[in-house]
Amino acid sequence: MANANENDLALINKLISEVERSQNERSAEDFLALFRPDAIWVTAFGRRFSSKAEIADFTRKVLTPDLGDQYARYDVAHVTMLSPEVAAVNVRQRPIHKDGSPIEGELEGSPLYVLVKENGHWMIGAGQNTKVQTVAIDTQQGEIDARDGKK
């Protein structure tokens, strides 16, 4: 995990654990507490929110018990320190049932969070979630490989 100190890595992992907990407990308020007031967010489907107020309005409507038996496991995949107070964090987001078993047929997420350190605490300044489309990735790589083979 590139150039982050042990304390920052521990705090960043704790924040990502809080994202997981708040999402899985359907606690919109706990989730929203992790964001800076000027945060921006893009959902896995490309919907963009340009303020914490917009993020809050959306989150309070979707982060509810109506999600049913749909949860997620969040694991920090990579951290790049852009400065001592800014980190780019890649996360592996796996869809699971409440019992922890995988949800078959559901795509994983690959969020990128830009975290900002304020008064010793990391906050989400920006987030972009993306559904991992393995078939499309493999197809694209095959096309790249085929072009490279023509050289």
TrEMBL record:
InterPro entries: DUF4440, NTF2-like_dom_sf, Steroid_delta5-4_isomerase. SUPFAM superfamilies: NTF2-like. It comes from the Bacteria. This is SgcJ/EcaC family oxidoreductase. Pfam families: DUF4440. It comes from Aminobacter anthyllidis. Signal peptide: none annotated. Residues 12-124 form the DUF4440 domain. The lineage of its organism: Bacteria, Pseudomonadati, Pseudomonadota, Alphaproteobacteria, Hyphomicrobiales.
